């Protein structure tokens, strides 16, 4: 017997809330790391700042969004197992792409400063 209602509206809201809360923690940690680096330009590279400080909130984002996606699929009538297979696959693929892109952006920021990321200059 299941303790959750069918479809899992509670998990839908909880997953979204967890993803958003971890996203705020990720944003604050990333901003603080870049600010600390720009103040003292330490020998520690920005790409190496992607340690446990950033990884934990990033994994929280991924976990929350995975639960949100799976619950959303279940709301539309997909079976439980299929919903989680699709959600985990999408979350892993997207998470790996975003994490690698973050590393590339941090390296680019380190080499060229904030002007390296000025997207308005391409127009």
Topology:
Blueprint (H helix, E strand, L loop, with lengths): L8 H32 L11 H24 L4 H33 L11
Structural description of this entry:
This protein has one domain. The protein has helices spanning 9-40, 52-75, 80-112. It is elongated. It has three helices and no strands. The longest helix has 33 residues, at 80-112. It has 123 residues and is an all-alpha fold. The mean pLDDT is 84.
Count of alpha/pi helices = 3
* H-E string: HHH
Kindly provide the radius of gyration, computed on alpha-carbon positions and rounded to a whole number of angstroms: 18 Å
Structural domain tally: 1
* Large-scale geometry: elongated
Roughly how much helix do the residues carry, as a percent range?
A: over 70%
Proportion of beta-strand residues: under 5%
Largest sheet: none
Structural class, by secondary structure, is mainly alpha
Mean pLDDT: 84
Q: How far is the N terminus from the C terminus?
A: 59 Å
According to DSSP, the number of beta strands is 0
Name the poorly predicted regions. Answer: none
Structure summary:
This protein is mainly alpha-helical and 123 residues long. It is 72% helix and 0% strand.
Keyphrases for this structure?
123 residues
């Amino acid at each position: 017997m299941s303790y959750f209602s069918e479809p899992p509206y509670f998990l839908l809201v909880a997953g979204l809330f967890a993803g958003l809360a971890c996203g705020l923690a990720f944003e604050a940690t990333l901003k603080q790391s870049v600010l600390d680096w720009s103040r003292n330009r330490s020998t520690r590279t920005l790409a190496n700042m992607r340690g446990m400080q950033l990884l934990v909130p990033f994994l929280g984002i991924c976990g929350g969004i995975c639960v949100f996606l799976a619950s959303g699929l279940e709301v539309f009538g997909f079976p439980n197992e299929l919903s989680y297979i699709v959600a985990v696959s999408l979350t892993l693929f997207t998470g790996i792409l975003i994490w690698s892109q973050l590393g590339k952006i941090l390296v680019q920021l380190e080499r060229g400063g904030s002007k390296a990321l000025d997207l308005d200059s391409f127009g």
